[in-house]
Amino acid sequence: MIALKALSKNKFKSLLIFTSITIAVMAIFLISSVSQGIIGMYSKMIKTDGDIIITQKGIADTFFSNVDINIMKKIVKLKGVKSTYAMIVGASPVGDMPIAGIYGITKNHMSHYKLTDGVYPKMGEVILGSNLANQIDSHEVKIGAKTFKISGTFSSGVGFEEGGVVMNIKDAGDMFSRSASFILVSSVHVDNIDNLVEKIKTLNDDIEVKTTKSFVKEYNQFKIIENSSLVISSLAFAMGLMGIASIMSMIVNSRKEEFGIMRALGKSRAFIMKNLFFESLIMSFSAYIFALVVSLGILEILPHIEKLQGYVNGTLSFETAIYVLISTIIMAVIGSLIPAYIASKTDPILLINQGCS
Amino acid sequence: MIKVKNISHFYGDEQVLFDLSFEIKKGEFIFLSGSSGSGKSTLLSILSTLLKPSSGEFLLDSLHVGDINNIDKFRQENVGFVFQFHYLINYLNVKENIALAALDSKKQNIDKILQDLGILDLASRYPNEISGGQRQRVAMARALVNEPKIIFADEPTGSLDSKNSKIVYDLLAKAVKKGTTVVVASHDMQVQNYATKTIRLLDGKLQ
Lengths: 357, 207
What we know:
The structure holds two protein chains of two kinds. Chain A is of the alpha+beta class.
């Protein structure tokens, strides 16, 4: 009760703490969410309609991978294979856009991209992702050095794809000088997938074959994104938490007179600490909830910002939310209770005099 | 009531009280006088258990203060304090300020005390919504609510006009009549009209 009164009566100080905690929590949420979102989008692209992924052996990134597309003819003959398709993943200037994702697809996978307008592309034609289409008002578009006719627009629900261009794999192959970045295979029985992986491996010495599940888990780019994100978000969070702790500490120090008066009135150290604990708890929890709601709102809006072409997309995991909640409360409580404890050991009259000075 | 034995106090290297010894009896109204810097406030803070003396000892209600385990509880049960600047908690209203100091068993006294002091109608107002004189009466109510054995007042009328000063002294005199011991540190010579005994300090020594 006293904790709530103190917070509501000291509005400016309360607002200062609330804002600091909100910004710190939002920083960690947005940084980690965007990196989790990037990984999530690429994983979704690879996992869609594919249980097994075939890339060039010894290549760290699918952008540099080159797999002979003709191997698909041998794969479809293997027992247990339901379907297979190939894809080239690249990036190039598109129209006035400095860069956009280019996806070269075999015809049998075109249906993955749901047309919102027009028809699927023939050779020399492309379909544009919905985000990119909103920024290109023309029937043709220059991609790299070649001009393509726009045959339609599509939506796939994956931000990377919706900010990019889909074309026939042959056109993409000519543009990026490769046969396929990777081949994806769907199996009839997922239970027998390891057996199928081994069979495909025997078809070519230059290929690396993995289940899409293990590929996503081991993919170097994801590890780099994850680790970078972890470092950046940890630093941002650590700075934010230090900010929270130091602001709480300053606020508590500025209230020495009040604590001195309470002690003079016979209130125990435990009473003062308990009220400060509740103040910190209420403040940090409410700021956390506010930051969570605002962050979720921002993450909802980000994919719809045309300028970002759908590339910046965020996913906030439950684990991250809980981790940030616990850390925020701990730091706020530590930041306020340590100076309060030190103050509580000082003679009341000295606290009152320090507060007045 | 209070027995002071060889109390000395230092702030850093500076000695402000020099080997003071004296006694105060129950029901006395003590006027602690002296010029600025004479050590009145420091002595009052020590006697009211708000400050530990650098050396010496004193007994409050026959108890060695240094040996009291829960000094906060002891202070709440036995000591009332009135500060010059009243020091009310700004985010609590008048009644809550008094309730903060009140023992659970004395909380039912709050309305009566507010009534006696003529400030019952201010009960729900906050300190910044009342006058200086009214704030000091609230501070008096806070000091009286637990019916303490002893009340210490440090320049209680320092920021009040003569009319409000008289109200404060009358309240303290009334408490003395009920058996409470009162110690007032002040420059205001008006206290002499109420005091039963004067302790005069000069440069930290008894005069």
